[in-house]
Protein backbone atom coordinates (compact mmCIF):
# COMPACT_ATOMS: atom_id res chain seq x y z
CA UNK A 1 0.00 0.00 0.00
CA UNK A 2 1.40 3.37 -1.04
CA UNK A 3 1.76 6.37 1.24
CA UNK A 4 -1.09 8.15 -0.55
CA UNK A 5 -3.38 5.14 -0.03
CA UNK A 6 -2.51 5.07 3.67
CA UNK A 7 -3.31 8.77 3.98
CA UNK A 8 -6.63 8.24 2.20
CA UNK A 9 -7.59 5.45 4.60
CA UNK A 10 -6.63 7.55 7.62
CA UNK A 11 -8.70 10.43 6.27
CA UNK A 12 -11.73 8.19 5.75
CA UNK A 13 -11.46 6.86 9.32
CA UNK A 14 -11.01 10.36 10.76
CA UNK A 15 -14.01 11.72 8.88
CA UNK A 16 -16.22 8.70 9.64
CA UNK A 17 -15.04 7.27 12.99
CA UNK A 18 -18.39 5.74 13.95
CA UNK A 19 -18.87 4.04 10.60
CA UNK A 20 -15.32 2.69 10.88
CA UNK A 21 -15.98 1.31 14.37
CA UNK A 22 -19.22 -0.34 13.23
CA UNK A 23 -17.44 -2.01 10.33
CA UNK A 24 -14.64 -3.20 12.63
CA UNK A 25 -17.28 -4.59 14.99
CA UNK A 26 -18.88 -6.43 12.06
CA UNK A 27 -15.53 -7.90 11.02
CA UNK A 28 -14.95 -9.13 14.56
CA UNK A 29 -18.46 -10.59 14.64
CA UNK A 30 -17.87 -12.39 11.35
CA UNK A 31 -14.61 -13.84 12.66
CA UNK A 32 -16.34 -15.04 15.83
CA UNK A 33 -19.01 -16.76 13.74
CA UNK A 34 -16.39 -18.39 11.52
CA UNK A 35 -14.01 -19.71 14.16
CA UNK A 36 -16.40 -20.53 16.99
CA UNK A 37 -19.98 -21.33 15.95
CA UNK A 38 -21.24 -22.00 19.51
CA UNK A 39 -20.39 -18.44 20.57
CA UNK A 40 -22.91 -16.66 18.31
CA UNK A 41 -25.55 -19.15 19.40
CA UNK A 42 -24.84 -18.23 23.03
CA UNK A 43 -24.95 -14.53 22.25
CA UNK A 44 -28.22 -14.88 20.37
CA UNK A 45 -29.67 -16.99 23.16
CA UNK A 46 -28.86 -14.22 25.58
CA UNK A 47 -30.54 -11.71 23.28
CA UNK A 48 -34.04 -12.60 24.43
CA UNK A 49 -33.47 -14.89 27.39
CA UNK A 50 -30.71 -14.54 29.97
CA UNK A 51 -29.40 -11.22 28.70
CA UNK A 52 -32.43 -9.08 29.45
CA UNK A 53 -33.22 -10.93 32.67
CA UNK A 54 -29.68 -10.21 33.87
CA UNK A 55 -29.83 -6.58 32.81
CA UNK A 56 -27.50 -7.09 29.85
CA UNK A 57 -29.44 -4.81 27.54
CA UNK A 58 -26.53 -4.54 25.14
CA UNK A 59 -27.49 -8.01 23.92
CA UNK A 60 -30.41 -6.42 22.09
CA UNK A 61 -27.80 -5.11 19.64
CA UNK A 62 -25.45 -8.11 19.54
CA UNK A 63 -26.89 -9.77 16.39
CA UNK A 64 -26.16 -6.79 14.12
CA UNK A 65 -22.42 -7.54 14.34
CA UNK A 66 -22.74 -11.25 13.54
CA UNK A 67 -22.18 -11.97 9.84
CA UNK A 68 -22.40 -15.32 8.13
CA UNK A 69 -19.84 -15.43 5.36
CA UNK A 70 -17.63 -13.01 3.48
CA UNK A 71 -20.29 -11.86 1.02
CA UNK A 72 -22.72 -11.08 3.83
CA UNK A 73 -20.06 -9.01 5.58
CA UNK A 74 -18.85 -7.29 2.41
CA UNK A 75 -22.28 -6.19 1.17
CA UNK A 76 -23.39 -4.91 4.56
CA UNK A 77 -20.11 -3.05 5.08
CA UNK A 78 -20.38 -1.36 1.68
CA UNK A 79 -23.95 -0.22 2.32
CA UNK A 80 -23.05 0.90 5.84
CA UNK A 81 -20.11 2.93 4.55
CA UNK A 82 -22.22 4.56 1.85
CA UNK A 83 -25.32 5.38 3.92
CA UNK A 84 -23.82 5.72 7.39
CA UNK A 85 -21.14 8.16 6.27
CA UNK A 86 -23.80 10.53 4.91
CA UNK A 87 -25.54 10.66 8.29
CA UNK A 88 -22.32 10.83 10.29
CA UNK A 89 -20.96 13.74 8.27
CA UNK A 90 -24.29 15.55 8.42
CA UNK A 91 -25.44 14.87 11.97
CA UNK A 92 -22.33 13.57 13.76
CA UNK A 93 -21.14 10.20 15.13
CA UNK A 94 -23.31 10.27 18.27
CA UNK A 95 -26.43 10.76 16.19
CA UNK A 96 -25.49 7.84 13.94
CA UNK A 97 -24.80 5.64 16.97
CA UNK A 98 -28.22 6.51 18.40
CA UNK A 99 -29.87 5.49 15.14
CA UNK A 100 -27.95 2.22 15.01
CA UNK A 101 -28.84 1.32 18.60
CA UNK A 102 -32.56 2.14 18.32
CA UNK A 103 -33.07 0.71 14.85
CA UNK A 104 -30.89 -2.34 15.53
CA UNK A 105 -32.77 -3.21 18.71
CA UNK A 106 -36.16 -2.64 17.06
CA UNK A 107 -35.38 -4.78 14.00
CA UNK A 108 -33.91 -7.57 16.14
CA UNK A 109 -36.96 -7.71 18.39
CA UNK A 110 -39.37 -7.71 15.44
CA UNK A 111 -37.40 -10.42 13.64
CA UNK A 112 -37.44 -12.63 16.71
CA UNK A 113 -41.14 -12.01 17.35
CA UNK A 114 -41.98 -12.79 13.72
CA UNK A 115 -39.83 -15.86 13.18
CA UNK A 116 -39.58 -17.27 16.69
CA UNK A 117 -35.95 -18.10 15.92
CA UNK A 118 -32.94 -16.55 17.61
CA UNK A 119 -30.57 -17.60 14.82
CA UNK A 120 -30.22 -14.49 12.74
CA UNK A 121 -27.70 -11.70 12.42
CA UNK A 122 -26.26 -8.94 10.30
CA UNK A 123 -26.40 -5.19 9.83
CA UNK A 124 -29.03 -5.23 7.08
CA UNK A 125 -31.93 -4.19 9.33
CA UNK A 126 -29.91 -1.14 10.35
CA UNK A 127 -28.97 -0.47 6.72
CA UNK A 128 -32.64 -0.39 5.72
CA UNK A 129 -33.22 2.00 8.62
CA UNK A 130 -30.45 4.34 7.44
CA UNK A 131 -31.90 4.16 3.93
CA UNK A 132 -35.35 5.15 5.17
CA UNK A 133 -33.90 7.88 7.37
CA UNK A 134 -32.00 9.51 4.50
CA UNK A 135 -34.82 9.11 1.99
CA UNK A 136 -37.51 10.74 4.13
CA UNK A 137 -35.05 13.41 5.33
CA UNK A 138 -34.43 14.52 1.77
CA UNK A 139 -38.15 14.47 0.96
CA UNK A 140 -38.99 16.66 3.94
CA UNK A 141 -35.94 18.93 3.91
CA UNK A 142 -34.04 18.66 0.58
CA UNK A 143 -31.87 21.67 1.38
CA UNK A 144 -30.37 19.83 4.37
CA UNK A 145 -30.29 16.19 3.34
CA UNK A 146 -28.40 15.09 0.27
CA UNK A 147 -30.45 12.98 -2.13
CA UNK A 148 -29.73 9.29 -2.49
CA UNK A 149 -28.35 7.97 -5.80
CA UNK A 150 -31.04 7.57 -8.44
CA UNK A 151 -32.98 4.32 -8.16
CA UNK A 152 -31.42 3.13 -4.90
CA UNK A 153 -34.66 3.32 -2.88
CA UNK A 154 -36.61 1.55 -5.62
CA UNK A 155 -33.95 -1.15 -5.89
CA UNK A 156 -33.77 -1.77 -2.14
CA UNK A 157 -37.55 -1.89 -1.67
CA UNK A 158 -37.82 -4.14 -4.72
CA UNK A 159 -35.17 -6.46 -3.26
CA UNK A 160 -37.03 -6.48 0.06
CA UNK A 161 -40.31 -7.45 -1.62
CA UNK A 162 -38.56 -10.10 -3.73
CA UNK A 163 -36.96 -11.66 -0.65
CA UNK A 164 -40.33 -11.68 1.11
CA UNK A 165 -41.73 -13.97 -1.60
CA UNK A 166 -39.48 -16.76 -0.36
CA UNK A 167 -38.15 -17.50 -3.84
CA UNK A 168 -34.54 -16.84 -2.83
CA UNK A 169 -34.72 -19.21 0.11
CA UNK A 170 -36.31 -21.95 -1.99
CA UNK A 171 -33.88 -21.50 -4.89
CA UNK A 172 -30.54 -21.27 -3.09
CA UNK A 173 -31.36 -22.05 0.53
CA UNK A 174 -30.49 -18.59 1.85
CA UNK A 175 -32.68 -17.51 4.75
CA UNK A 176 -33.40 -13.78 4.78
CA UNK A 177 -34.41 -11.79 7.87
CA UNK A 178 -37.30 -10.08 6.09
CA UNK A 179 -38.98 -8.88 9.29
CA UNK A 180 -35.75 -7.17 10.37
CA UNK A 181 -35.43 -5.47 6.98
CA UNK A 182 -39.03 -4.23 6.88
CA UNK A 183 -39.10 -3.09 10.51
CA UNK A 184 -35.72 -1.42 10.05
CA UNK A 185 -37.01 0.52 7.06
CA UNK A 186 -40.13 1.61 8.94
CA UNK A 187 -38.15 2.58 12.04
CA UNK A 188 -35.75 4.62 9.91
CA UNK A 189 -38.62 6.42 8.19
CA UNK A 190 -40.19 7.26 11.55
CA UNK A 191 -36.94 8.46 13.12
CA UNK A 192 -36.03 10.40 9.99
CA UNK A 193 -39.39 12.15 10.09
CA UNK A 194 -39.06 13.00 13.78
CA UNK A 195 -35.50 14.32 13.61
CA UNK A 196 -36.13 16.24 10.39
CA UNK A 197 -39.20 17.97 11.81
CA UNK A 198 -37.36 18.78 15.03
CA UNK A 199 -34.47 20.19 13.02
CA UNK A 200 -36.88 22.25 10.93
CA UNK A 201 -38.37 23.81 14.05
CA UNK A 202 -34.92 24.72 15.38
CA UNK A 203 -33.60 25.94 12.04
CA UNK A 204 -36.56 26.96 9.84
CA UNK A 205 -36.02 27.76 6.20
Biggest beta sheet attributes: none
Shape: globular
The DSSP helix count reads 10
Along the chain, the helix and strand elements come as HHHHHHHHHH
Q: Beta-strand percentage?
A: under 5%
Rg over C-alpha atoms, rounded to the nearest angstrom: 17 Å
What structural class results from the helix and strand content?
A: mainly alpha
Strand tally: 0
How would you describe this protein?
This protein is an all-alpha fold and 205 residues long. 75% of the residues lie in helices and 0% in strands. It has helices at 3-15, 17-35, 38-48, 50-53, 70-91, 93-115, 124-140, 152-164, 167-172, 178-202. α1 (3-15) crosses α2 (17-35) and α6 (93-115) runs antiparallel to α10 (178-202). It is globular, with a radius of gyration of 17 Å. The termini are far apart.
SSE order and pairing:
Elements lengths: L2 H13 L1 H19 L2 H11 L1 H4 L16 H22 L1 H23 L8 H17 L11 H13 L2 H6 L5 H25 L3
Helix pairs in contact: 1-2, 2-5, 5-6, 5-7, 6-7, 6-10, 7-10
List its traits.
mainly alpha; single chain; 205 residues
Compact overview of the structure:
It is built from ten helices and no strands.
Amino acid sequence: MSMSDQKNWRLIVMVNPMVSLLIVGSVIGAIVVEISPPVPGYLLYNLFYNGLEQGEYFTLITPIFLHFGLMHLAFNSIWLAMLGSKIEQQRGPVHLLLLVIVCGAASNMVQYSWSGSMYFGGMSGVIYALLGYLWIGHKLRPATYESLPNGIMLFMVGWLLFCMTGVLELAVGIAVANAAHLSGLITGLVMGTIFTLLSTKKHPG
